[in-house]
Fold each of these.
Amino acid sequence: MRDDGAGDGLTRADRARRVANVLRGQVLRGAFADGVLPDERALVAEFGTSRNTVREALGLLRDEGLVARRRGVGTVVVGRAYQHPLGELSGLAEVLQRHGTVVNEVREARTVRPPLTVARRLGLADGTPAVYLERLRRVDGRPLSLDCTYLIPEVGEPLLARGRETLERHDVFGLIERVAGAPLGRAEVSVQAVVADPATCAVLAMPEGGAVLAVERLTRLADGRPADLEFIHLRGDRLTLHATLDRAARHVADLPVT
Amino acid sequence: MRDDGAGDGLTRADRARRVANVLRGQVLRGAFADGVLPDERALVAEFGTSRNTVREALGLLRDEGLVARRRGVGTVVVGRAYQHPLGELSGLAEVLQRHGTVVNEVREARTVRPPLTVARRLGLADGTPAVYLERLRRVDGRPLSLDCTYLIPEVGEPLLARGRETLERHDVFGLIERVAGAPLGRAEVSVQAVVADPATCAVLAMPEGGAVLAVERLTRLADGRPADLEFIHLRGDRLTLHATLDRAARHVADLPVT
């Protein structure tokens, strides 16, 4: 079952893609405890494929920014992908502080006239202002995400009044509940893969043309009123979303899409 | 609160990014019923920004493959993003057949020697074969995803015996339950944004350098044994994942990551 010259009709690119599929998951799960991938010979043996195919697969992962070649060491894992559980509604910092030191760099925090569609989704009457926050998240100093948040005034104004330092040190979810005294209810989340635009790449210190998870999250107060509409861009090479799903739940109604 | 020349220290790229954030969600949610975006003048009014900023924002969405400029019409939504609920463990086809005609093009279906890590995750002893399926999903004729699946022999062999036509017309989840008679239990899913490699771009008929959602899903039988390990690449411009999350669930233990 070796693929090289086996006449199976596959191109080397197809074979490399399959090898990369398997290795990508291992890299992201932190399966290589010492951060070093097995050498080419070991990978050839493991995948039953040619050395050229293994090299091409490693090249794909290098292009994705997941691994790098280090002289005298071999192929090493670059950085680290954090794993964010999708099944819980947590602020990113609440989850990431389990992994490292989270700092929110506040790029903007002020009252704005929200775009009409944002106002509508937040249930604001035309002309009502909103509070806009833009924060760059760093974990252990390295940029992870750019979060753009629109808040209803009732929730956002008390946060602004606390000043930037509070916003830098705390998650918005926690602040809403503690400072604004407004318990949160449900959130509707959508997740999409996009190539980051140059401005976002620059802010996130990632190479141009890299992929991000674009997350849009509308969070409601416990009484059902929308309070917080966020547009989050997460570096694709630094964060993986996780969930455990149950087959028994397959017949639940479609989730509401607003 | 106009942003142009307001001396707010923002670059036009920053402003364009914010406008694009809001429009992106509208495009993906199908908020423009006729598939045409408001004209530049309307967008300038809605976002309280300059015409150049609006143009740059539309350019970002064009680069992402979400919209196109059509002469005499304006900016139109390209294709359509399907919305896949993350909260249920469904085969993709089970969800997509609500939206259009789903065809699975079977690119490969055979017994292979699985890579060592795949064997381990499937709980297979060294040297045990696995069944490998590779399918290209099309919805209404247009490629949506490339699914590479490793199955334990007990589940995969009965599927192979049914022949390609069965695999083309049916979801693997349904087939496992009906043909192999093995009820499914839970699945562990991870989702990541990556730039698709050239081979994957070619298969999915997407422009080189485009983003995909890379989903890895390990599905277990109802008795807990792993049965099905999938590597799915979904076109970022054609699929959005959705979930509704509850703040009350925030303190649940971290999801198991294998």
Note: The longest helix of chain A spans residues 12-29.
Amino acid sequence: MILTIRVLFSLLLLLTSRSYADDGYRLWLKYDLIKDAAKRDAYARSAQFIAVTGNSPTLKAAADELQVGLQGLLGKAVPVLTNAGNRTGGIILSVGNGPVAGAQLRTQEGYQITSRSNNIVVSSKSDAGVLYGAFALLRQLQTLQPINALSLTSDPKVRYRMLNHWDNPNGTIERGYAGETLWKWYELPERISPRYRDYARANASLGINGTVVNNVNASARFLTAEYLGKVAALANVFRPYGIRVYVSIYFPAPKVIGGLKTADPLDPEVRKWWADKTKEIYKLIPDFGGFLVKANSEGEPGPQDYNRTHADGANMLAEALKPYDGIVLWRSFVYKADPKADRFKAALEEFGHLDGTFDKKVIVQVKNGPIDFQPREPFSPLFGKMPKTPLAIEFQLTQEYLGFATHLVYEAPIFKECLDSDTYAKGQGAPSSGATVAKVVDGSVDGYPITAMAGVANTGSDRNWTGHPMAQANWYAFGRLTWDHTLSSEAIAREWIAMTLTKEPQAITRIADMMLKSREIYVNYNTPMGLSRPWTGVHFAPEPWQNKSPRPDWTAVYYHRADSVGLGFDRTEKGSNALAQYNPEVQKQWNNPETCPLPYLLWFHHVPWTKKLSTGRTLWDELCTRFYTGADSVGWMQQQWAQVKGSVDPETYAEVAGRLETQHKEAIWWRDAWVLYLQEYARKPIPAPFKKPERTLDEVKQLVDVYLLR
Amino acid sequence: MILTIRVLFSLLLLLTSRSYADDGYRLWLKYDLIKDAAKRDAYARSAQFIAVTGNSPTLKAAADELQVGLQGLLGKAVPVLTNAGNRTGGIILSVGNGPVAGAQLRTQEGYQITSRSNNIVVSSKSDAGVLYGAFALLRQLQTLQPINALSLTSDPKVRYRMLNHWDNPNGTIERGYAGETLWKWYELPERISPRYRDYARANASLGINGTVVNNVNASARFLTAEYLGKVAALANVFRPYGIRVYVSIYFPAPKVIGGLKTADPLDPEVRKWWADKTKEIYKLIPDFGGFLVKANSEGEPGPQDYNRTHADGANMLAEALKPYDGIVLWRSFVYKADPKADRFKAALEEFGHLDGTFDKKVIVQVKNGPIDFQPREPFSPLFGKMPKTPLAIEFQLTQEYLGFATHLVYEAPIFKECLDSDTYAKGQGAPSSGATVAKVVDGSVDGYPITAMAGVANTGSDRNWTGHPMAQANWYAFGRLTWDHTLSSEAIAREWIAMTLTKEPQAITRIADMMLKSREIYVNYNTPMGLSRPWTGVHFAPEPWQNKSPRPDWTAVYYHRADSVGLGFDRTEKGSNALAQYNPEVQKQWNNPETCPLPYLLWFHHVPWTKKLSTGRTLWDELCTRFYTGADSVGWMQQQWAQVKGSVDPETYAEVAGRLETQHKEAIWWRDAWVLYLQEYARKPIPAPFKKPERTLDEVKQLVDVYLLR
């Protein structure tokens, strides 16, 4: 009888999972029955119960997740007990500082998973750490790793691990390509979408512990009582999952909603307004995270409107937060509309001299590169130059410059390339100084008291969260790296694939290969060798010819500087001398055009078309080679994907295949736009074996113009 | 053994349907197992097979839908045969003009469902008609009606039954409150979302046969080859479901994308451009439906820019469409920014004298009321005054002025109230002339050769399509009324509830009661007795005090005309004399303030605050009574809903309950805004038993201001 029911149940699960196409909603938290019965049984022997003492919402969330996960993966109900007693063969969730709870843990949020007395013990100093451990344990099963002799100790390397949502109150998302905002402002606080909890689960599974709910181009609405009530309702859902909410502030809020005559950060009434507002917030949201600020940037107001500095503004907010456990994240993304200036240098010019003047509750949040989330940028010079100021790194997950939701670009290599860059902040070293961007950010170089990483979210209301099914991997990778930036791009990719797409080893390898190459492929057809920013107004289509704009630094020609001699932005001392913002060892890598690595060449040098490069090709020929092979490589990705057809869900397969087809078309579009445009300066033929584009530059422009129509 | 498998299968279905919360995606096309086994068996005896001769995509869609539907409803697989042979006890789908196919049908799209020789025969003159019949048959089962002796004959009363999507190329929807556009323009044409087909199924199930894919404030993108390719990909998905695509055009397209110097509709080059463009479209989309046009309206360009008439513009497009089976829908929604004028009169003033001058391929599309989709409007005077011009009626399903996606307003009573209004287009009659708006629109009054109804869609990318789960009923009701405007609001509501929410008779009655009263409740707290348009810029919050705007007719005071004497817009001959636009019998109903029905009173009269009304109360007291009882009635709706908790899906229950809570809060907000504002003119106390609002007018305004912040 028992057997019959078990068979029935398995059949049920199999049929159920088959009758529903996978719409991607579950992300990597898929708990489908493990196919290998032996493996299932082995896991089941070690997971006969879940024991948890205490019933905080976070511990309950951990136990619930394990129970649901094990039920799905093993096809059997696992009881949750309040005490293991003498029982063995189960999972014990344990909080505290005792021996079981892992004396080796460095942080409150770290966790250990160990085998003790025939039980698996998940322990931490905090409830949140236990939750992270529970997800880590589930990940072991989802990736088919053994769990019978686990000995894992894991601490997060960074304290504030955050998503930034550039979401507007009207429901749109600035640079969002996966639908509207997840936050239904007109329904909140009365209606709580079940999706909010699933969002929190997904983040907690990665260790993300903060969410800035609104756009950095902020609406003052979010500081009104009306909207704070809505934010508080979200905070209530997120809290059990260890996630704190933050809001982006509109700097002149004291004027706009406070009725004051000024927003001068040194004005006592303004300071009082912020202190009162902060008090109001903490009454509603006792674990409120703090403020994110974009000020005096791209038209947003800020302290400079009152002849005050960024530090004056940030420190005023820090003062308001003083009674509470909250922080200020002040963005360094600033630049002036000066045609003579090099935008590359703006952030350090404005922030460098402020080092040491920020309150200890302030983190300066720095985009990974000096410009703006380009497909490849050198790391921001700030990371080597602000020893007295905690610096957060800001990555962009949403694919503003990476083909929206139709191009497959796995971003972990972008993040890693920056994180692993050596800033030489502490001088020389061999073969490297060890002062990587990652180690600046995690505080190990300068001993920052607080540390943070932020990712501009790629989530939206699309059923699968991220539009492109493969873009889920970027959310995943960012989250995993906020916890541990030493993980490799490949390891993260393989883990994500196994949890999300397929458990077949060959297919995993093939998909991982495609993902790992995807960024370089994109760079090749889009902006090879250090080109940047040739985008249309909406950042969708190629427009290297664009030379008109309200601001000179919002044209394409400002960046690539193509002329009859050559191509690229001279940032050596003969040019803007932006290179001087880096430490000497870094300068040495990049300031000689003969030895500068080709991926960075045009970031720093204006190179003649006929110049022979290390590849043996002239600049022109090398550029063409990259544009053509880049576009062709999308065809290769299509072939790779076709080969995993039998190994992934059919709906997901079709969706990715369709998007790859679009990507291929658009890659050729980018290639044609660039080579036809640059050819007007280079005056060289397309080198063999490549064939010249089938269309004219005018035809390419006409197609681009379509996307510029209102 | 057979029994065992059947038991297993039933259990499987039961468990499956239980393990998934209902997220609303399936709309009313829910084919969950019928709980009553006897009923199931009875149905099963009459549905042992589906026989269909011919394999057109539309017939295949009909057979597929029946097969999937029966499988779900009956829990048994039903085979599809190409020929019934001598078999009985099945369903036969039949196209043709033979005796079985129903000689009584008046139209190509009509269907018959009859019992013949122990089979159920679904017949029509067209494949699409068979599809409509298949959905009608499924509806019988979904609403638990007997099917063993069916004799249904059904013809659509209107030929073009259309949804208008005000969707923009950037993904937003003008006046959309259910997420982003359904059409993924950046993915099309390569990737075809499975959702497109489900959209088509839902529409086909109602008889909707046309979709205008883009906003009437149109982007010229939709006439470029790039976007026509995308539209064609949608058309390919919709075609098997009998749905034709239409596009909204940007009138100056010949200039903007054609490179011409003018868009003058009488210019030969312009006419040639449109003819060529139309040819290009029909090459891609052989069953293209035609063009929808908003011209010389709210800043949109049009023929008047060249001193031509609307007829000149429309007839030019009709000429371009001449070789094809396509039509022009030209909107009459026009009004000038003239503070002296009455916007009410604008449409007839501009279009009345053009009656008889439009090409026979042109339909003039008229909003139901003279202003703009207000919660209650009198019918547009055009419906009684354009005998020589086919008039389409345009309703708005999306709740622009009906509380967005948080207020429960069942719109069928709005549609019916207008459709059943007597225009007296043919003069007197007793008790009515019979020339209702519906009969004008369906052509029976004036013998229009082509007829149409259009609904501005309330669909979006939200999982449940319409944001508010109950708003699905508005899509449903509109669709059913396009097919048959004689259906009652109640019959439609009961049908929809049974298909969508619950089959329990008591719960159906309770929910239907709530739905049927919801519109009057909304009117009462929002704009009672003929008030209109006191909305903020985004049409969300109350703003009766609003008196500044770029246009005088975009202020609130323009509409309500509150002063120390009284309230309301005098449209009698002492005032704007808009009433003179109606036929004399209609004028008689409304032009005397003593006898004008209260729901229309302030539409036509400026009434003193102290005026005693037919209810025995003064105007002021009557207004207060309606505002207060309206807001209180939302509390009643909450109670009604609470009582059906056990009868509907828990997730749906919670979602509606949350939204009702918001609605209650906002209803009180509207009430307070109005009574506090009007009180400044009326200078009367709030009559007992009502208590004066707990907040001041300034406090109400401050809350409104929050929603006006960027």
Note: Chain B has three domains: 25-154, 160-500, 523-569+606-708.
